[in-house]
């Protein structure tokens, strides 16, 4: 049965709010946030960065695992709309990164985004009251100005994801938020290692390797980070993941 855009958006909010499960996987949760943001906000790519609890920010998830996009999200932890929105605690947008004013504003980020094929960038903070844990980045290939309604929906997606993460933490065993976020970022490093192992074994692009990891984890109802650790440490073979999935 066909569903309307509003119905699909409502289902996404339900998905992002439902974190009270025993096998809640923060990395997969953030990947869903990025992917659904692309779907609902009519942007070409999206990514999430999180606080590393030492005064810095690090990439945690993206709508694609393309190498140039991963590098661009990493660059946003030092400069760009994402970095600025974390400083001011509200949405920051740029409709045309090729404009001289934007190149002067972000002399490292803007050229990197243009090289990756993106002309417009926006970011909204992941926050609850006065607590900001990260930001959601939105990228477009064309120079477009996201309207107020789109930014509002993006902020709502970021807010409900933040509430979900904080709610899961509060419902757990008293785990501190700082410890949870740090563990998530460490898990992301392991996922990067596992992607490399799988990509080299199967001759795959990084995004395809990541997709196979997620599919394997979902099919076996395991956390993405656990599957990635097993592959990186050699207790899970790459051919077990690729079997029947690549030709």
UniProtKB/TrEMBL annotation:
Gene3D superfamilies: 3.30.450.40, Winged helix-like DNA-binding domain superfamily/Winged helix DNA-binding domain. Pfam families: ANTAR, GAF_2. SMART domains: ANTAR, GAF. Keywords: Kinase, Transcription, Transcription regulation, Transferase. PROSITE patterns: ANTAR. GO terms for molecular function: kinase activity; RNA binding. The keyword Kinase applies. Residues 171-232 form the ANTAR domain. The keyword Transcription applies. This is GAF and ANTAR domain-containing protein. It comes from Amycolatopsis iheyensis. The lineage of its organism: Bacteria, Bacillati, Actinomycetota, Actinomycetes, Pseudonocardiales.
């Amino acid at each position: 049965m066909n569903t309307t855009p509003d119905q699909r958006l409502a289902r996404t909010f339900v998905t992002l709010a439902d974190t009270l499960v025993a096998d809640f996987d923060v990395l997969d949760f953030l990947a869903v946030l990025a992917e659904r943001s692309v779907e609902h906000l009519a942007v070409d790519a999206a990514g999430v960065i999180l606080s590393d609890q030492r005064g810095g920010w690090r990439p945690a998830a993206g709508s694609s695992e393309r190498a140039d996009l991963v590098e661009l999200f990493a660059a946003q932890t030092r400069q760009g709309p994402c970095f600025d929105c974390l400083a001011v605690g509200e949405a920051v947008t740029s409709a045309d990164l090729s404009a001289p004013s934007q190149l002067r504003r972000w002399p490292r980020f803007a050229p990197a985004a243009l090289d990756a094929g993106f002309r417009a960038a926006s970011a909204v903070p992941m926050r609850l009251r006065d607590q900001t844990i990260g930001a959601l980045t939105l990228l477009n290939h064309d120079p477009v100005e996201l309207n107020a309604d789109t930014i509002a929906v993006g902020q709502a997606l970021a807010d409900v994801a933040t509430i979900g993460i904080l709610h899961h933490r509060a419902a757990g065993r008293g785990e501190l938020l700082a410890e949870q976020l740090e563990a998530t970022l460490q898990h992301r490093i392991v996922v990067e290692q596992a992607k490399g192992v799988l990509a080299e074994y199967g001759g795959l692009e990084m995004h395809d390797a990541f997709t196979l990891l997620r599919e394997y984890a979902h099919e076996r109802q395991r956390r993405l980070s656990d599957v990635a650790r097993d592959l990186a440490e050699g207790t899970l073979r790459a051919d077990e993941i690729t079997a029947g999935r690549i030709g």
